[in-house]
Design a protein that fits this description.
By secondary structure, this protein is α+β, with helices and mostly antiparallel strands. Helices cover 52% and strands 17% of the residues. It has two domains: 9-270, no CATH class; 282-410, Protein Transport Mog1p, Chain A. The radius of gyration is 22 Å and the shape is globular.
Length: 411
């Protein structure tokens, strides 16, 4: 789902900064030029024009970030998403998502590149040596902007946050591996020497949770979604670079990944392109009267489907059950009394994948609603309906060949 903006949070988090001291402004600007020389060499892109630089205080950086979030993500949209995430069980019911995300992102920011003013702003409260890797990441964004126009990525893909997340993974994944290459270069090593970028990032989680109290309190869904563009995006590009070059990365900007599935499984982007299938929730809407109205409609994607399952079943089972994803649509509807209905329509690579998700989601329902009573109707090996009921809720789960349909209806 929508994850708001992504400042280079993981970069700062991974460094484990605990005490920050102001640095000399002229020295910061001079060092940024030196870092840029190395970034240009690593990324194999020469600036088309000089990159403007400035220095801002913590308060100024925070004010900028807040203004951008408020401008790009209207509060009513986030509140609608909050209700859907609550119903899915991805965030607790007492979490004010909009206010929490403002706290979470402003807690972590440490400088940024602004594609509107074409300026890299340096934080004035972080020691120079600690700041240099962050500079490498942000200056990568400056080069990306000059060659590929970052502004086109700032507006989310309407109705498809999975695709938005995949696009962000390209941008932030590139900044992440350039930052790692910059850091490892003095030791004669590179990102190619890191066997697993995702595991490396996960190992930093306890440090992040200790260093940043708001991040430490965040639901797993938010932590994982913030991690995705950096770690998974970096792993995706690392796979591209293993047998390719930065010129191959350049070409991706005119042929963008369409889903988190393609980021998670680079072969589904590189080899036989696995395009996501468009689906809708019209089938489930037939169960609703004219009193019901849509609140929010979006795409979960493979990664968020995995996170949804992982809330209730084992990590291994959740990963296995989400890997055959081929497309989905999730929606929240509401009636005049304030009752809600969650509608989920999914399509899978084959009947076996659909059946595996069907069984995994059955287990999710049992864990989520332990008091509900179940009844079944099996028509064939490929068609089956399971219904769970309790006084205030009815959940219907249907398997039909390579499709699985869900409706959670409050009564």
């Amino acid at each position: 789902m929508k994850t708001l903006m992504r400042p280079c949070a993981l970069l700062t988090l991974a460094l484990g900064v605990s005490v920050l001291f102001a640095s000399d402004v002229s020295k910061l600007l001079e060092s940024a030029d030196e870092v840029l020389e190395t970034v240009v060499e690593i990324r194999e892109l020469e600036p088309k024009e000089p990159i403007q630089k400035g220095v801002k205080s913590r308060e100024e950086v925070k004010a900028y970030l807040v203004s951008r979030i408020q401008e790009e993500y209207p509060k009513d949209e986030i509140e609608a998403e909050e209700r859907l995430l609550e119903k899915l069980g991805l965030i607790p019911p007492d979490l004010p998502l909009y206010e929490f995300m403002l706290e979470l992102l402003t807690e972590q920011v440490a400088g940024y590149y602004d594609p509107y003013s074409k300026t890299f702003f340096i934080a004035d409260w972080i020691p120079l040596e600690i700041q240099k890797p962050v500079m490498a990441h942000e200056l990568t964004h400056a080069l990306q902007d000059q060659y590929f126009d970052l502004k086109r990525f700032l507006t989310p893909v309407e109705g498809n946050d999975d695709r938005t997340l995949a696009h962000n993974a390209l941008i932030e994944g590139e900044g992440f591996i350039i930052m790692l290459d910059y850091t490892l270069r003095p030791m004669g090593r590179s990102v190619a020497d890191i066997p697993d970028l995702i595991e490396l990032s996960r190992l930093q989680m306890p440090l992040m949770e200790t260093q940043f109290p708001v991040f430490g309190k965040a639901p797993d869904y938010l932590k994982e979604t913030l991690l995705f563009p950096y770690a998974y995006g970096g792993a995706f590009l690392k796979e591209i670079l293993k047998d390719g070059s930065w010129q191959d990365v350049d070409r991706i900007y005119s042929d963008l990944p369409e889903s988190t599935e393609q980021i998670l499984h680079p072969e589904k982007y590189l080899n036989s392109r696995d395009h996501p299938t468009e689906v809708d929730t019209k089938r489930q809407q037939e169960n609703l009267s004219e009193d019901w109205k849509p609140v929010i409609d979006n795409v979960l994607g493979e990664f968020s489907t995995y996170l949804l399952l992982k809330e209730y079943i084992s990590d291994e089972q959740a990963q296995r059950a989400s890997e055959g994803w081929d497309g989905d649509r999730v929606a929240l509807w509401e009636d005049r009394s304030g009752n809600t209905a969650v509608l989920l329509s999914t399509i899978w690579d084959g009947n076996t994948d659909a059946s595996e998700f069907f069984e995994a989601y059955s287990e999710l329902i049992v864990k989520k609603y332990p008091q509900a009573e179940r009844s079944d109707q099996k028509i064939s090996s490929a068609t089956e309906t399971r219904i769970w009921r309790k006084p205030d809720l009815e959940v219907t789960l249907t398997l039909e060949g390579d499709r699985v349909f869900v409706i959670e209806l409050e009564k």
